[in-house]
Every structure is written in C-alpha cells, then in structure tokens.
Specification:
By secondary structure, the chain is an alpha/beta fold. The protein has 17 helices and twelve strands. The protein binds ligand LNO2BQTQ. Ligand LNO2BQTQ binds next to loops. One of its GO terms (cellular component) is plasma membrane.
Length: 415
C-alpha cells in the first residue's frame, strides 16, 4: 500500500536499492541452466488462450518449448515468451511424418484442439506413444476427451457454467457473470494442465513411461472450486447468490468507491480485523449491528459506502497502511506494477521491449523461473533451426520448404 511523506520517500529509496541489488545478483548462466524444468522438451500445438499460457509457464521454468504453428501466419502469437516457433502443415502426410519424427525425441506434446482432431491427423496418443513410450501427451480441451459434449465448441464461460461455479458468481438480483476468462481458461485449464505435465514428468522418473493427460476446463474448474463443495452446507453459503459472506453479500467483504472515483477492497472477516476496519472508518462499533447479523448487512453496507465516499483512495491508504484491517486499494494493472510492495518484491518485470509482465510464480528459492526478456517468436521463425537440431538434413529441409510443408519467416531488420 502507498504511504506518504518522508517515510514514504525513504521506503521508495530502499526499494530502489533493493531492485539494484537484485539486478546485480541476476542469475548467472550456470544458474539459468538449473531451472526446474531444464532439459524438458515440449511441443505445444498452437491454440487460443489456455494452451499458450500452459506452454509459457513451462518455458518460464526452463523447458524448451516449441510452438507448432500452422502455415499462413494466423497472427495468434501471445503468451509465447521463451518459446520458439515451427510452422508445419499437419494436413499433409509429409507434415505428419515430420511431427512424428520430432515427437520421438520430445518429453511432452500438448494439444488444445477439439477431441478427434489429432486422431484425424494420424497423431493420436496410441501412435505417438508407440513411437515414443516415454512421451507425455497432454490434451487440453473444454469438456474432456469423452462424453456427450466432448466435441462441441466452447469457451471459458461455457466451461465455467457447466462446472457449476458460474452459478455462484454475481451480485444479488443480477445475472451470473464470468470474471474475465480467468477461471476456466487459466485456473481450471492451463494451470491444471501444467500440473498434470509436471506430475507425469515426476512419475516418469520412477516408471520410465509416458502417459496421456486429459486436462479439461470443466473438470479443472470444478476441482478448483472444491472449497465451495466442501463448505456449501455451512452457514456462509446458505443465502442466495450475492447475499453470502464471500460473494458480495457482506459489508466487510466488499468493494467501495472513494471520493476521487477510485475503489478500495475490504476483506475484514475475523472479528479482530473487523474492529480495526470500523475504527479506521471512524465509525462506532456500539452504534452498528452485530457483524454477522445478515438482515442488517444492506444497511451496514450503506454506512460503509458513505464513509468511504468521504475520502480519496490515497487518504484511505494512509489510514489503513500497515494495519490488520484487511483494506487495500484496488489498483489498475499499471498502478499494480508501480506499487511499492510489488516493486520491492520484483512482482513485475520489464522485457527488452519495455513490456511489463507479472514475474512467474511461485518463487523457487534455488531454481527460480527466469522468464525470457526477448520478444515473442514470429510464426515459423525457428523452423529450420529446429529441424536441423532434430536431425533433418539440409536437403530434407529444402524439400519440405519447396513443397510448402513448412514455412519460415525471418525477422526484418529494424533500420
Ligand atoms: C475466451 C477464450 C478465447 C479468447 C480468444 C481471443 C483471444 C480471440 C477471439 C477472437 C480473436 C480475434 C479475431 O479472430 C479477429 C482477429 C484475427 C487476427 O488473426 C488476430 C487478431 C484478432 C483480433 C483476434 C484476436 C484473438 O485471437 C481473439 C480476440 C477461450 O475461452 S479459449 C478456450 C477455447 N476452447 C478450447 O480451447 C477448448 C478446446 N478446443 C476447442 O474446442 C476448439 O479448438 C475450439 C476452441 C472450439 C476452436 O474450434 P475450431 O473448429 O476452430 O478448431 P478445432 O476443432 O480444435 O480444430 C483445429 C483445426 O485447426 C487445424 N490445424 C491446427 N493446427 C494445424 C496445423 N499445424 N496444420 C494444419 N491444420 C491445423 C485442424 O486441422 C483443425 O481444422 P479442421 O477443423 O479443418 O480439421
């Protein structure tokens, strides 16, 4: 949280020194070679959002990730940090042969398509695992590999809906809303898939065998919501949507507008923290209903909202700074990157093109992720280099190129 005055400046300076020290202690090449997933080869078939995110996580933690792009520059190249790109036409038998050859030396292949697409190519798990029994074949789909809906198109909001979780999200008297595409695409999808891959890699150290991973966003999201299932009969969930403790029903777990049109987040659940909130707001506990008196929550919310509307966000930050009242400013992405606490920890980093991104999490003490700071690859930028590495001869590569089975692109000099 931001403070003010001399103390604030002192903290900023210390934060800057800390940053400088961190830069000087930047990991050496030797340390880079000890990232957690160093040496793991991953072939990621290019997809929309969860697949690229899963591949980025693996690359951040040291895996060599190759993104397999289609020909013809689709322009969908986000979250490609630290990856290389190979453009290959899988609709041609020669393209399929190239992929089978690559997969013989891969640790992981990850595909984001509708179930059946890989089989249609002749690149289903039976075939690739026969070629390479140590291969981990990760399938990241929406509804799962089998089942009535498995082949139907869908996006985050649909998977969230089917998992049951969407029914719980939203304010009272409003229709349910999806919090961006964070929960199913990334929480239930890419993170769960990355976990599956790491688990399978770990298991392979014992069995020396690969396996197939059915990571899907409906089940991943349902699993992510285990807390809901395990607590749904408790008192704090038995009201309708938007009327419970954690879903915007309670005044002490809410967001409030400040006098300058910004917002504060309040999460003062425990009585001792709630008491600090009331004190900070300048209200009197004795004049308020009991914290857990649900029938009074609407009224209490109004009182809190009136109080918050009297001061600016910075003023509230000063009041609550360093207290246990569980009150924080709601920061924009840009403000979050500049926030003193986040700066002190290095929560965000800037790449060579001045783009700011969140640092990979979690932070491992000995072998932390070291995200690439270089620009994302262009589609097909590394096609030739990758094929050479995998033992393709110059003649073979030229033939594939002239037959338009592969595509290469060369970055233009920025003169
Ligand atoms: C909410 C998120 C989605 C966010 C997406 C946004 C990021 C994008 C949405 C709109 C985009 C913009 C728009 O397109 C306009 C611009 C276009 C420009 O090019 C770029 C800028 C744009 C502004 C663009 C920017 C962004 O892209 C957008 C804003 C999600 O929920 S993501 C999760 C989605 N669901 C899943 O992943 C579940 C599993 N997957 C599926 O169910 C399906 O894949 C899916 C997603 C329903 C798509 O179905 P589709 O029929 O298209 O594909 P599949 O059935 O899976 O089959 C794949 C086909 O691709 C062929 N193929 C693949 N690789 C190759 C290859 N190397 N060679 C040859 N062919 C290949 C494969 O053969 C299949 O083709 P066929 O059907 O012909 O066999």
């Amino acid at each position: 949280m931001e403070g003010s005055g001399r103390e604030e400046k002192g903290r900023r300076r210390r934060g800057g020194e800390e940053e400088k020290r961190k830069r000087e202690e930047a990991p050496s090449d030797l340390e880079r070679s000890t990232m957690a997933l160093q040496g793991v080869r991953v072939l990621e078939l290019a997809g929309l959002a969860p697949g690229p995110h899963c591949g980025m996580i693996l690359a951040d933690f040291g895996a060599q990730v190759i993104r397999l792009d289609r020909l013809g520059h689709q322009g969908k190249t986000w979250m490609a940090r630290g990856k290389r790109s190979l453009a290959l036409d899988l609709k041609r038998p020669e393209g399929v042969s190239v992929m089978r050859r690559l997969c013989k030396r891969m640790d992981v292949v990850m595909e984001p398509f509708r179930p059946g697409v890989m089989e249609k190519f002749g690149l289903g798990p039976e075939i690739l695992l026969k070629d390479n029994p140590r291969l981990i074949y990760a399938r990241l789909s929406g509804f799962g590999q089998l089942g009535r809906l498995s082949k139907v198109a869908g996006h985050d909001i649909n998977f969230l809906a089917l998992s049951g979780v969407l029914s719980k999200l939203g304010r009272s008297n409003e229709t349910p809303y999806a919090p961006l595409n964070l929960l199913a695409d990334f929480g239930g999808g890419s993170l769960t898939c990355a976990l599956g891959i790491v688990l399978a890699l770990y298991e392979r150290t014992q069995s020396d065998k690969g396996q197939v991973i059915d990571a899907n966003m409906v089940e991943g999201t349902a699993y992510l919501s285990s807390f809901l299932w395990h607590s749904k009969n408790l008192v704090f969930w038995n009201q309708p949507r938007g009327k419970n403790i954690l879903d915007s029903g309670a005044p002490f777990y809410e967001t409030y507008r400040t006098s300058d049109g910004k917002f504060m987040a309040v999460g003062a659940i425990e009585p001792q923290f709630y008491a600090l909130l009331i004190k900070g707001l300048g209200l009197n506990c004795d004049e308020l209903p009991n914290q857990l008196s649900i029938s009074d929550w609407e009224e209490t919310k109004k009182k809190f909202a009136d109080a918050f509307a009297k001061k600016t966000q910075a003023e509230w930050c000063n009041i609550f700074d360093g207290t246990d009242a569980c009150v924080t400013p709601i920061l924009s992405l840009e403000e979050a990157a500049l926030n003193e606490h986040n700066q002190e920890r290095g929560t965000f980093f800037t790449d060579e093109h001045h783009n700011v991104s969140p640092r990979p999490a979690p932070l491992l003490s000995r072998t932390p992720a070291i995200p690439s700071t270089k620009r994302d690859p262009m589609e097909g930028e590394h096609t030739k280099e990758i094929l050479q590495e995998f033992g393709f001869s110059e003649d073979e590569i030229n033939q594939l190129d002239s037959d338009k089975i592969i595509e290469t692109s060369t970055p233009k000099a920025n003169l």
